[in-house]
Write the structure tokens for this entry.
Amino acid sequence: SQTIHQWPATLVQPVGSPLSLECTVEGTSNPNLYWYRQAAGRGLQLLFYSVGIGQISSEVPQNLSASRPQDRQFILSSKKLLLSDSGFYLCAWNRPTGQVYKGNSPLHFGNGTRLTVT
Amino acid sequence: AQSVSQHNHHVILSEAASLELGCNYSYGGTVNLFWYVQYPGQHLQLLLKYFSGDPLVKGIKGFEAEFIKSKFSFNLRKPSVQWSDTAEYFCAVNARGSARQLTFGSGTQLTVLP
């Protein structure tokens, strides 16, 4: 069966510090991978998605970046965190379709990372 | 661009009460619709989905949702809630055939009192 791991579960970082959140998927090949952010009182906002190694699409311009160094590894990074980066970050995957997710395969979410920037 | 509105931010019900959570979307084309649920301490999971066909879809744990195209709505219902239904519920939409990803609503926190 497929599993998704996301860490750390919680993180407190000062403003201006770097960030690295990691997500790995097991039990499937070439998944579509996603980073979402859930800010207080808002819905889930898609940040990045990837349909393959080295292929990253950004939905929202900001000081975050994403990388996919391996097929089942998705990393969310920042060189300098802002206060507004605080939130709940969720990694997700769905079945490979060879193209961007078009609603035919449900998303499977990780447990999330609670990031507090102080 | 598509958007999703969930007007109820927090709903409190007693056990056995009926539930209806509202979800409205805005998009001019054909959409796929979803409800996701996040139970306390757990990850988001799919509750039910609508792609085409019968506009009344049934999901897990006795939940159902009805797609009313003329109203751009996809409301979630359950005839009799249980304490274990306490969770946050998210409506989501994906424009069919578009490269855009799922757009989520802001979520509704449901609290069921025993």
User: Anything to note?
Assistant: Chain B has no helices and twelve strands. The two ends of chain B are 41 Å apart (CA to CA). The first strand of chain B starts at residue 3 and ends at 5. Chain B has a mean pLDDT of 88.
